[in-house]
Design goal:
Largest sheet: 2 strands, parallel
Helix content: 40-55%
Strand order of the largest sheet: 1-2
Low-confidence stretches: none
Length: 109
C-alpha cells in the first residue's frame, strides 16, 4: 500500500507504522490481505476509482483474494469518485446497493 499511496498519505503511514522496509512485518500484519481468509460474512465493496486513501489496485487485491477464497462478495467501482462519493447519482446508487445487500444477506439471517 505504501508504494501506491500518494505522498502526503505516505507520511501518515510512516508515522503510524514506520518505515515499510524496516517494519515490513507490521505492515503485513495490518494488511487486510493478511486477514481475508478470516472473513465469514458476505462483503460489499464500493470503491471510488480515484480514491487516494484506498487505491483501486489495493481494493482489487482484496477482491481477488475474496474470489480465490470462495468468499461471498460484490465489488463496484464508481468512476470519478474518491474516498467517499460526491456525485448524487453515485451516492443514491451506493445506498441502493447497500440496502439490497443487507436485504439479501441479513433479512433472513
Amino acid at each position: 500500500m505504501y508504494e501506491t499511496t500518494r505522498g502526503d498519505l505516505r507520511d501518515y503511514l510512516m508515522r503510524e507504522f514506520g518505515d515499510p522496509d524496516k517494519d515490513a512485518d507490521l505492515y503485513r500484519e495490518r494488511s487486510p490481505l493478511t486477514h481475508v481468509s478470516k472473513i465469514r460474512a458476505p462483503l460489499l465493496i464500493l470503491q471510488g476509482a480515484n480514491d487516494p486513501r484506498v487505491p483501486q489496485s489495493e481494493a482489487e487485491q482484496v477482491v481477488k483474494a475474496l474470489r480465490d477464497g470462495g468468499k461471498i462478495h460484490d465489488y463496484h467501482v464508481y468512476e470519478g469518485e474518491g474516498h467517499g462519493f460526491r456525485v448524487t447519482e453515485n451516492r443514491i446508487d451506493s445506498l441502493r446497493r447497500a440496502l439490497e445487500w443487507f436485504d439479501k444477506h441479513l433479512r433472513h439471517a
